[in-house]
Write a structure and sequence with these properties.
CATH topology of the largest domain: Trna Endonuclease, Chain: A, domain 1
Shape: globular
Domain NERD: 51-167
Keywords: Membrane, Transmembrane, Transmembrane helix
Distance between the termini: 70 Å
Protein name: NERD domain-containing protein
Number of helices: 7
CATH architecture of the largest domain: 3-Layer(aba) Sandwich
CATH class of the largest domain: Alpha Beta
Transmembrane segments: 7-30
InterPro entries: NERD
Strand order of the largest sheet: 1-2-3-7-9
Length: 236
């Protein structure tokens, strides 16, 4: 009887410790994601349950933790040259320029080059393809220049950021990195790049681009329909 009571007590203590640890983990994660949640309007659990949003939230929090003066804008929708709608995952505005991020929170091995239309992803025994994120982000940069002709191409930088659980077998002259490499790459760029925007210009860019962030549902629906039509076109 004593042994069974002792086992029950230990089990109960273990459950309580695990529960407290789990609650603590979610609290820490919620605080870490608070800036992203506020900027996007997403709920905490919708981010946890969506791989793409989770990766963007991690990326946003890393950028937000940087000490330099900056603005971060998620989910920016812009028209391209052709009139189609494209979505930029994250834009970082600093005195050094605009940094355009395409977040790919994938696991597995990724094979591709900047000139190949589709990249191959191997996860376990499964293989599937994704649209070339370098080309995807190039479209984002071009759309930005198209809508804001006062910007110079040389002051806009493309970043494709993959999850740390992936293995990258990619050849590209543009920046394609793991999330864990982001801070060091930005630090190196920050040391080598000249200042091109003052604080007033940064604030103006933020206020203008913010108007293109998190649009009404009909705009998002139009973007989703366009992406779906592209997938159907290239799968034929």
């Amino acid at each position: 009887m004593c042994d069974s009571m002792h086992f029950y007590f230990l089990s109960l203590c273990l459950c309580v410790i695990l529960l407290i640890s789990l609650v603590g983990f979610f609290i820490v994660l919620y605080v870490r994601f608070s800036g992203y949640l506020q900027a996007t309007g997403y709920s905490f659990f919708s981010v946890l349950l969506n791989t793409g949003r989770y990766g963007e939230a991690l990326l946003f929090s890393m950028l937000d933790s940087r000490k330099s003066q900056k603005y971060i804008i998620p989910n920016v929708y812009l028209n391209t040259y052709s009139g189609a709608l494209t979505e930029i995952d994250l834009i970082l505005i600093t005195s050094k320029g605009l940094f355009i991020f395409e977040s790919k929170n994938y696991s597995g091995k990724i094979y591709g080059s900047e000139h190949k239309l589709y990249w191959d992803v191997y996860y376990g025994r499964k293989k599937y393809q994704i649209y070339n994120p370098v080309l995807q982000n190039r479209t984002h940069v071009n759309a930005l220049i198209h809508n804001f002709p006062m910007l110079r191409t040389k002051n806009v930088y493309s970043f494709v950021v993959f999850g740390n659980g992936s293995v990258l077998k990619v050849t590209s002259n543009e920046i394609v990195i793991h999330r864990k490499m982001l801070s060091s790459v930005l630090d190196r760029l920050g040391q080598s790049l000249p200042d091109v925007f003052d604080l007033d210009e940064m604030a103006l860019l933020f206020a203008t681009l913010k108007l293109c962030s998190n649009p009404e549902h009909s705009v998002k629906k139009r973007h989703i329909e366009y992406v779906s039509s592209l997938k159907k076109k290239h799968s034929q």
